């Protein structure tokens, strides 16, 4: 369907305030199912945190001067933020785009595709923030949080949600069916989680693997979140934020272009 | 905001000139011109794949034409399509109501896409539900609605912004007769109240009932255009006699039944005839001599009726299947 030239398909996103009612639509759906949704998002990281944290914590008394469960807490905040945003833009956005045809209905109203895809991205980050806050509350209750810088985690979680939301939207734009997303998780998300310092310090991995991890967004999220949770100021803040933002902006740009090609051809 | 140009109020709700849309080598729309008059019901009639839906998608600015000009609500499309859609309501071919919401929530959420505030939309919801005959379903989930109810709710949703132009893509496909009649009644009511309606369908009776004007579309081109009555008068003879069954007359060259009869006699009575399967269709202005002839034949069965839009449609687009 090469009727539209490439530079037109991948032209700059044009975002307006009209993304707000689309965001509100998703929020209204979430509100109806808020409690099971939050509990569902909470269960997985909590099982890991307390299962691994106390299990491995018996064998590994300390990492970098803190208990293993304290070390793991930051990793769990980041990986569950990533998972929450990814699931939303993969399975839920794909349903709205392809199965329920919700986006088609919205495009018949005076809302353009750019605003719809942007609303999906912001919504995924919002939902990641909601589940991230729930996790923070739980780990705070268990005394795993130093309160000095903890509020900085809220904008960080939102940014991590935007980065992974944008990456996931690229997959959604390309997906023929739900099955496609399994590859994304098994070939990208899971290996990245293992090399990005979520469960153990990345320094003990081979140098080449560390380089790979440093090119991916999750390690940068962890590098920021871990000191913040432990009451310390992170180093290389600008670099980490820049990488996360670059994935967010770049991912969104590509995702929007691919989605335009898919739906507006 | 720019000042309203002089005469904009008189602009056609939708004007299309020389519209073309190509996908690779396949030209789906191959030069369409049409101009809707305010307040009329205009119907695009065509077999599957004729280019009806693509024409609508171009008109709404949802896909970029390969050529031609489009003005929707007086605004150039696709450049100002988003603004133009403020004045338009759309009932799509495929149901896309929000399954997570009740009927009322569907209307509320959809109204917000037009920039309407919640108070304005909430005030409109009762009348929209009443129009759709769904007052009692206000808080019902979409999954619990029948096909006809969903269509009516989709129609109500398309009216949430009080559009000047309502576009419906095959609105009654898949509905039972009761549900179809109810949709038609509602559309007539809207047309009477001044809404311009653009409808696509492949149901002749739907077009004949509702359309002030219609265009028959095939292979991306308009084959004929006008009021249903004018199109029938211009394109086809007044009467049709369908002849079928066995025939006991003398057949030529091994044919039998209605086909044998048609080859022997139809040309003498009908201006035009056509054999399709077991039936001979005779098109003529005065059916009386043929009816007298048929009354003398044994074995044949026959049916006389006035010509209708379906006859025109089949004459222009042929009898081949389109699937």
From TrEMBL, chain A:
Membrane-topology descriptor: Multi-pass membrane protein
Pfam families hit by this protein: ABC2_membrane (PF01061)
Tree of life domain: Bacteria
Keyword vocabulary terms for this entry: Cell inner membrane, Cell membrane, Membrane, Nodulation, Transmembrane, Transmembrane helix, Transport
Main location: membrane
Transmembrane segments: 128-145, 151-174, 181-200, 237-258
Biological role stated in the UniProt entry: Part of the ABC transporter complex NodIJ involved in the export of the nodulation factors (Nod factors), the bacterial signal molecules that induce symbiosis and subsequent nodulation induction. Nod factors are LCO (lipo-chitin oligosaccharide), a modified beta-1,4-linked N-acetylglucosamine oligosaccharide. This subunit encodes the transporter.
Subunit structure: The complex is composed of two ATP-binding proteins (NodI) and two transmembrane proteins (NodJ).
Name of the molecule in the record: Transport permease protein
Species in which this protein is naturally found: Aromatoleum toluolicum
UniProtKB/TrEMBL annotation, chain B:
InterPro entries in alphabetical order: AAA+_ATPase, ABC_transporter-like_ATP-bd, ABC_transporter-like_CS, ABC_transporter_ATP-binding, P-loop_NTPase
ABC transporter domain location: 14-244
Keyword Lipid biosynthesis attributed: no
GO molecular function: ATP binding
Keywords linked to the UniProt accession: ATP-binding, Cell membrane, Membrane, Nodulation, Nucleotide-binding, Transport
Family of this protein: Belongs to the ABC transporter superfamily.
Protein name: ATP-binding cassette domain-containing protein
